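Box 3.1. Reading complex inputs
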Amino acid sequence: MFLKELCEISGASGDEERVADFIIDKIKPYVDDVKVDIMGNVVAYIKGQSPEKKVMIAAHMDEVGFIISFITDDGYLKFKLVGGYDERILPGKRVIVGENKTAGVIGLKAIHLQNKEERNSVADESKLVIDIGAKSKFEAERFVKIGDYATFNDIYTEIGDERILAKALDDRIGCDIMVFLAQEKYFYDTYLCFTVQEEIGTRGAQIVSERIKPDIAVVLECTICSDVSGAPPNMEVTTLGGGAVLSILDRGSYSDVELTKKLYKLAEDKNISVQYKRTNFGGNDAREIQVAGNGVKTAAVSVPCRYLHSPAGIVNKKDYYSARNLVSEFLKNVREFI
Amino acid sequence: MKKIIELCNINAVSANEKKLAEFICDELREYADEVIIDSVGNVIVHKCGNAPKLMLCTGMDETGGVVTYVSDDNKAYFNFVGEVKCDSVVNMTAEFLNGKKGVVCVENQKSVDDLKSSDLYIDMCGETTGIAEVFSIVSEPVVGNSSIIAKACGIRAGVYTLIETVKSFKNTQNDIYAVFASRSQIGFKGVKVAGKRIAPQYCVCIGVCGEENNIKCGNGFVINLKSGYSISDTDLVQIVKNVSEENDISYTEKVSKDGIFAGGFVKCCGEGVKVLDVLIPTKYKDSPRQYIDLNDVKALTDMLIKLCESDFNF
């Protein structure tokens, strides 16, 4: 498992190169070919016994982040969000900026200086700055430049008996599972697609799936888990520790009904914990993959994650292994699915 | 009329259209050179010709729901599939694909004015249902002299129109594809896939609209000139107008900044497609029971038959 290393790499949408390099280094000894396309998608090809069908597994490399848009005269960095956030979580969070890995913190006007309206509202990106400790624009420009990307800067930590606390679990956890899957051989030609720019509109998946035109696809994702105090059970979305998650539908796609039911049965037959996603919140690369070429039978297998798109998501290792085992079994038995 | 009601009574929620797709295939197999169901559930019917490709399409699926959680006291909570107004389904019957039925109820006696889907559940009346089971909101059709009120009536009238068109047109050189598209209620996914596969030069998409201003049930089919997501091709509009006027077929024209119709999802396929949206006017469009006037359905069918027989080399 390379999850610690993968999560600690900075790789906001559009800036996935370091994640790609790490992944290529890990999978190259095992796969028959690996290419990086113009957008930055990494596509690993595993030659099967039969070229009659093409199987695609996808996970996205990018994480939510920030892009530096302006440097103030007094050395603060203004920024724009890359991807979707609950902006209430931003103030006070540590970030890492640019190629120089400059450390900083998201700052907000001190509470005693805020008027009543400011105190009662959520500070959006226009009111926030990144403070990298520079006293002036001149000093700040020695470390960062406009256009640099930033991400949260939190360390990977194992907590409790079986849980992981980290940034970027969405979707480095899917990438890590695919690195594992790259070490096996399968019956049909298999394409492991590490996609870019999922968080800003599933753009990498659109390009790569139109090029491959697979017959069947499974998206590996990290999905919302709201099993926190006060949430009604039907709105929890998923349960931490409840197993691999199969999506029925979300804002972008409706998983292939037959494929999803077969995956659920496969999990039961193999004693793999599995659960259905209980709401239609969210979306993933399946949105684009299912309409690629002449249409693709597509399903999404996810790992539930509390506090998604924050510096500190929590996943359960058991769910990670459930998702990994389920997709691994799918690939080993792929002839029963096409 | 009997055939439209038969089509309305088939439950075919988006992404779960298999039964309806097979019904359409059975209807049209003897009339076409090729009939297939593709990877996303579209029915594609091909009548070969030498002239440019003309694609006719209609959505076939309906809105509904899918069970996502069953509580210990056997309340089946669900998500809607497609856009459904919560207040329109309260106390209605939910019929599952496996034939089981339940009633949509409101949690904690909430007011219907500010309902969310999470406030609703299905009382299975002592029966059980599994997670991921799909249901339609059903009701008994009401039939008048020349009108019907029934579940999914607008979109199934479109299906009927296209079936009758394929069965009826003759003497054409046009290379015609009839597409009964899946997943139209969840982002027109099916028609997008079919458009890419066929890459037609021309496409006429059958849709449904509500009554507004000059658009009334009984005044003929509707030519959609512009909506939020598409502008109909002026050449195709003129052809359809000419065909209609030459054959004394009633139509009205619609210009709106709102409304999303299938044409917008086909126009960028292949090297670009001349598209036109034609619509069946309905009352109660976003409810589980819609009203259609059969004269409008006949007008659209007659126009499409004549259109298929027209020379498209303009």
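In summary: Chain A has a mean pLDDT of 95.
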